[in-house]
Target: Simple sugar transport system substrate-binding protein
Amino acid sequence: MRRPSTFLVLVLAGLLTACGGGEDTAPRSAAQGGIRLGFSQVGAESAWRLANTASIEHAATNASVQLDLRVADGKQDNQIAAIREFIAAKVDVIAFSPVVESGWDKVLQEAKDAGIPVIVTDRTVDTTDTSLFATVLGSDFTAEGRKAGEWLVEHFRDHKGPVQIVEIEGTTGSAPANQRRTGFADAIKADTDLKVIDSRDGNFTRAGGEQVMSGFLQEHSDIDVLFAHNDDAGLGAVKAIEAVGKRPGEDIKIITVDASRDGLSALAEGRLNYVIECNPLLGPQLMELVGKVKTGQSIPRRVVVDETTFDREAAKAVLPNRQY
Ligand code: AHR
Model:
């Protein structure tokens, strides 16, 4: 199981500190002191993920939580093995960001049987037994997809004739891929001119986005719009579009999700057209929930983080202080 480059994580953690990042300055708490938290992270596939890992590491240090971080390299088997190790080590709380939605019931039941509370963070799990976890902390991915679709409907309001859309999805089976696809489809369905002509998995990576977009460009001569499920895949696609002599943002309109620094820079330059924020700075809220779960305080079953959207002008305005 590989962890992301320590250097990258340190740089991001340093940046969060240097920027003052109100979100990442959770006070130390006596109640949280000495808590042992096992956290299984998805991988290191995107800028979002690196910022999320750095936020959790930084917040754990601030809250005096002993963090055992395992990075799963995008593999569910690695996450299940890590959770079993946390159970064997009798940690106080387990948290994890599930790479895919389904297939967690057995290992979560093992954690429950061992009396260890589990917090699901970032991505959701698909299970009928909601007693298997204490809460879910993260984004509303369906709303993110819907915001992307709503911008598209508005942008092409006066357009006559069909608009050909391609979609670069996130990791197959993951909550953000499933829910962003659904939200987007719901938002555009009333406008019958807006047609998704192709859709493939780009695995939330730049390389994946570039490869998938190259394939789309070979097979479809008339793409008007790309909806990429994250910035990294969208930026990979920008490279593929430029490689065939087309202008990203002009010849093909591009919507992405995350609002990382690189995504917002491309938006400010006009190579992306609209970016939906997905906030990775979940560390402080996670530590607060960990402290409460450990001390038996009640917590909401679902905690959704606040997020916004960016057009070109909004991107230019926030870029100087963007933390990730
Ligand atoms: O689960 C959040 C998603 O995972 C982010 O949008 C993406 O960048 C990451 O890989």
